Amino acid sequence: MSFAEELRSSCAEDWDAAVGHGFVNRLLDGSLRDSVLRHYLVQDYQFCDAFVALLGQAVASAPSLSSRLVFAKVLGSFASDENSYFQDCFEELAIPEAERDNPELTIATRDFDALMRRALNTRTYPNILAVLLVAEWLYADWAARAGGPDSWPTAPKHAEWIRLHNNPEYNAWVAWLREEFNAVEPPDAVIRERVKDTFTEAVRLERAFFDSAIAAG
Ligand SMILES: Cc1ncc(CO)c(N)n1
């Protein structure tokens, strides 16, 4: 079993709970309430801030130009596609500026932000990859449950969030992240354990992030 598969299996309970979460079920069948989506998007916009910073550190910490360019391309599409999705939803849901820019953070958002900034500050490639891999792989897994575009909900606020995490380019990026992570599996047991802890905490927080959207909405 690869390093990535080994870590995913070791936190299968939280992983499966996040992928099969009630939030995801309702997003996929189009029954997600606006109050829940609104809470989720406001918190996720704050998540994106640290995530983009982490991608920037990945550009800096990657061992080769070819790897740096992969992160640079993802940063580019994050700044266009993904940001447009947030702006469109913020308009549609009439979310005030203060909530877009400076909301009160839930514990899950604060903990996730702290985890990303800790990984960033290590400037250590396997740690940075561990957080990126969980965030992207777990999203690919829930979005894969949606099947093909014909079976997606019709509202763009739902369908577009699925499309951003269920398309051939996104799946190729996640497969690349997994291989990159496996290729830098630390030989040192102590460092390996640290990477595992980072991975495990990220999976726990993905689940908590969905829990908190449902609880608040
Ligand atoms: C909380 C969370 N995890 C992962 C992603 C996908 O990067 C996201 N947008 N938000």
TrEMBL record:
Give the enzyme class: hydrolase
Domain Thiaminase-2/PQQC residue range list? 13-214
Cytoplasm is among the record's keywords: no
Q: Which residues form a coiled coil?
A: none
The reactions it catalyses are: thiamine + H2O = 5-(2-hydroxyethyl)-4-methylthiazole + 4-amino-5-hydroxymethyl-2-methylpyrimidine + H(+); 4-amino-5-aminomethyl-2-methylpyrimidine + H2O = 4-amino-5-hydroxymethyl-2-methylpyrimidine + NH4(+)
Q: Which UniProt keywords apply?
A: Hydrolase, Thiamine biosynthesis
The signal peptide stretch is none
The pathway noted for it is: Cofactor biosynthesis; thiamine diphosphate biosynthesis
The record's section on SUPFAM superfamilies has: Heme oxygenase-like
| Pfam families cross-referenced by the UniProt entry | TENA_THI-4 (PF03070)
Keyword Calcium assigned to the entry: answer is no
Cross-referenced InterPro entries: Haem_Oase-like_multi-hlx, TenA_E, Thiaminase-2/PQQC, Thiamine_Salvage_TenA
Its EC number is 3.5.99.2
User: Domain of life of the organism in this record?
Assistant: Bacteria
Family indicated by similarity: Belongs to the TenA family.
Stated role: Catalyzes an amino-pyrimidine hydrolysis reaction at the C5' of the pyrimidine moiety of thiamine compounds, a reaction that is part of a thiamine salvage pathway. Thus, catalyzes the conversion of 4-amino-5-aminomethyl-2-methylpyrimidine to 4-amino-5-hydroxymethyl-2-methylpyrimidine (HMP).
What protein name applies here? Aminopyrimidine aminohydrolase
- Its source organism is Arthrobacter liuii
